Input
Amino acid sequence: MTFLSLRNVAKSFGGVTAVDGVSLDIERGEIFALLGPSGCGKTTLLRLVAGFEQPDAGAIRLDGQDIAPLPPYRRPVNMMFQSYALFPHMTVAGNIAFGLKQDRLPAGEIGARVAEVLKLVRLEGLEARKPHQLSGGQRQRVALARALAKRPKLVLLDEPLAALDRKLREETQFELLAIHRRLSLTFVIVTHDQEEAMTLAQRMAVMDRGRVAQVGAPRDVYEHPASRFVAGFIGTANLFEGTVAGQDNGLVRVQSPAAGCAVAVRHAGTLSAGTAACVAVRPEKLRLGDAGCDNGFAATVEEVAFRGEATLCRARLATGHALTLSLPNRARAGGDAPRAGAAVRIGFAADDAVLLTS
Amino acid sequence: MRRAGILPTLLLLAGFALLYLPIVALVVYSFNDGRLVSVWSGWSLRWYRALWDNRQMLDSAAVTLKAGFVSATLALVAGTLAAIVLARAGRFAGRSGFAGLVYLPLVMPEIVLGLSLLLLFVELDLDRGFATLVLGHAGFSAAFVAVVVHSRLVAVDRSIEEAAMDLGAPPLKTFLWITAPMIAPSMVAAWLLAFTLSLDDLVIASFVTGPGATTLPMRVYSQVRLGVTPEINAISTLFVAAVALVILTASLVNKGLIPGRSNGDSA
Output
């Protein structure tokens, strides 16, 4: 059974629609990410689940219970805030114990639980510090510990790693995964960072202007984007706009002015000729040289950028359309990357491209 | 820091002199031995001693302190509530009207305020005395309290209060445990401000108080009309000292230099 279920949830602020009829099903024990650009309604959705906002329409059910009428302090849900929102006048231990005190737990039990979550987030020994005596990473851990201390059914995390620097963020991602595995709680994470969402989440919802654009596992969403928006937001996509010219054996040919020819793409559904469509290819699916590829183009390399694990290339077709390629750096000598100005052939397989109609 | 030129420094000194030389003179002459206010005849504490024996003066001082204490406390409660509504209640019908009414006493001439209170108390058939004095002072100091507390309240991260509610604390508990400690320095400062306002006030007090509750400023004012004695200098010096002390404390508390319980700014 669905653990957290949202049905046609809508919310607007003074005539501006923030969440526009969202339905989502989140399973018990999973890490679910709400991903989207700023202003897409993901944080509002989180605040609706936490109870800080009331939905204008729709139902929110948690573990079979309708929680929409409950105020935030009666919901079995705890949130980790983007700003961490630590209580500045309380110690680390006081912050973590605050929620437990609200439940009137005996003092011994509170002490044991505080020690337990402090150990979980590796902050032993800092109990007596005030928030302003902690580093950014330590504050982030206190905020997480505070949200976990009550053992809520559902933990909401609003941009939990956004304030950390890159290195710390990557480490913390894996720690968060380990903590999730140990506690087997349900996490809903809001983030604008697609890498973070893909690293952490088992499933994610990509949101756009208050609506859910696509729900799925990170790999599905990346390899099978449902729309141009998703293809462009998750990773980078090379798009060939055009019209369907024909279809046979599961291959659709899209006549694209940008490519200057017909582009072949594998697609299961049937499309009538003349339908507006778009072929999307990821930069790492493009190859230098088109031997054995279903599609091949002549291009000139314009820019080459070394990025460590891969080299990004920008190449322009004779039509003026620019493509981005990501070429893995397999050899240390770097002999596989082209030079700027080189004339090359670029190809990709029909299986590696996606046909988008919306 | 950039070094200021000679002209700005001179202007600054001239400004300070204009403001504070009279007060310095008043303080110095309060230690004068002679009977004349303007002729120096040696150091002495004689006028402070005379003050100590002046029953009426001491009674008035007691009335003033008590009125200041009670009215500042009332103003703190009312002003803080108004500040909370203005900072936290969001948009509601009549919000700007409410804000205007809360802040109006800041700009209203005291004489108008005093007169209107007098008319109100007469209309209500209230005997004028200590109670009306306290009400009058609490009313106009509440506006100052609201300004001070409101400015602090809007600086408090809303999500800290939300976090408390999220962890299971109902709104009142959230205010008492989380918000109040964070705004405590501003509440202390606001109380002290309200206290000095009440201490200093002459105009409103002379409208709203009765024969049993003459405040110190009123007593001093009526004596001055009969002629200035060095005793007035002495009481004024004490007044200046008291007010300066309170204002200094208030600003130190507000800056967090004196532990008024929290380190709200540093989180």
